[in-house]
Amino acid sequence: MTFEADSRGYFGDTWGGRFMPEALVAALDELTEAWQDAMADESFVSEFERVLRDYAGTPSRLYHAERLSQQVGARILLKREDLNHTGAHKIRNVMGQALLTKRMGKSRVIAETGAGQHGVASATAAAWFDLDCTVYMGAVDTRRQALNVARMQLLGAKVVPVESGSATLKDAINEALRDWVASVDHTAYLFGTAAGPHPFPSMVRDFCRGIGDEARAQCLEQYGVLPDAIAACVGGGSNAIGLFTAFLDDESVEIHGFEPGGDGVETGRHAATIHAGEPGVLHGARTYVLQDEDGQTIESHSISAGLDYPGVGPQHSWLAASGRATYTPVTDAEAMDAMALLSRTEGIIPAIESAHAVAGALRLAERLGAEKGPDATIIVNLSGRGDKDMGTAIEWFGLGQADAGEEQAR
Amino acid sequence: MTSSSTAFAKARAEGRAALVGYLPAGFPTVDGSIAAMRTMVEAGCDVIEIGLPYSDPVMDGPTIQTAAQQALDGGTRTADVLRVVEAVAATGVPTLVMTYWNPIERYGVERWASDFAAAGGAGMITPDITPDHGQEWIAAADAHDLDKVFLVAPSSTDERIAMTTAACRGFVYATAVMGVTGARESTSDLAGPLVARTRATTDLPIGVGLGVSTRAQAAELAGYADGVIVGSAFVRTLLDHPDDEAAGLAALRALTEDLAAGVRRA
Lengths: 410, 266
Prior knowledge:
heterodimer; A: alpha/beta; Rossmann fold; 6-stranded mixed sheet; 17% strand; B: alpha/beta; TIM Barrel; 9-stranded parallel sheet; 12 helices; globular
């Protein structure tokens, strides 16, 4: 079985493809050719590696979370993507795409963003590579994430609030595509996840797959074994596919994606696209989609803005359909519990996105620890840090009031 | 049902271009959209293009987005679109549906083609399907004798234009600008060369759309295109009269008559 896309961008003959306006096909063809050309060019690949190493701080550490491991009865290894420059795995994707943009001779980049993480990463890459940058962001999100709007602006990007539709991430993608149709001769679209029309799912994966390549080598080197399971959160799925790719042919390794279960899948307020969606076409790819009976996209819900997307990368749909990977929902409450647990046991505040993966790993640890003992090994992609989520944490946990009164009373 | 090519042939026989008018089904209401499209037929549209409202219309500018959202908010369902098709097709003009792909895939491609043909629909315009990713639709359309209208764009290579026109039936939709739907002040200088490149590959009629809103623009395009496609400008007349259906229809009628004079270069 191949987990790769065919030359037309279909995974498993079904998922992915390119359901796009003809006006963009020439640009997508040009991009496909440039990407394939670049990946076959040693000077591009080594320049990409150099930029990630010197600027973004890769390879990220594979860190044994010992106290957490003791508590859960299995060896938990955290892939510390949260320590990368800009605080998440997304820097890998944008530096790759921006380097490719330069190679293609284009002068402007556009991007969509939900919570602002991909927008900040894109603005960062644009600053570093001296490219004009416009970021589309749902108007609702610009209000929820004013700090990230300011970060993008400080980095020199223009942030455009999107009022159409539900004024969230999916509408920001629509608006970026509309911009791109009109600007495609000089503009590259830095797509934020491993979704969208061919070649984005494969290209974004290629730029993110260093996560898994590094983790696999680090695990073998540090522990002499492959992990029993690997875990990542899945919204669009770039950090997950980045981790999974290196392990796809390792049949002994269980692969687990954890989807945002929101208030619980049974409530209908969630973003568990693979678990609860149906096959459809969204943003240029055939994939699982949260949709109603008529094929209208249903608004997704997650406490984590970075996972709040009603579609998912098509390769994940194929990995699910083929049975190679398992996708399970994790609720908001479980993710927030995991955020608190990791903070208190390891002194690491994860992004709420990544906390979904941690929560999922706790379930895996219970099973694998019982089956295989404390050496059962689970790699968790800690895809981002939690600084950006403190507003949500303050609200969720009721934090922010100093404990002075209590101290005195003791 | 009648292929849209018959309307183009009739216009050509009269020494003019055809006027193709677009409105979303269910805007402002399902019945309101039927009344509006009948008005467009009476006032001179040769072909009607019915938009199937969709939550994520990436090829549409703000005007059509607003109308489609209003239709969805009003509860318009895919089945309602078939009712509109039936009512408009009953006027005798070729009636097409313009739709993004997911609602059709969700309805079932074969089932849709069958129900749509039964309602009297002539064919579909598919803005996010290109022939190289549209085999399922092509097969269903062929089985039910429906028009397949694919788009060509200024950015299309000659090779892709040839591939696209070879897969079209009815007419070819040439997008005059690199951009989304919406009225623009002047016609694009990209349309002429695109029509010429398209003409070199096919005998099918060529309709030009995106950005056309005035009689003068229609007249200019009628100089070299077989059809002039207008959408946002029609939608605008109804958006401008939100609480007065009669005034909206009067404005719609006046614009249609004006554009119909334009395609006659009058």
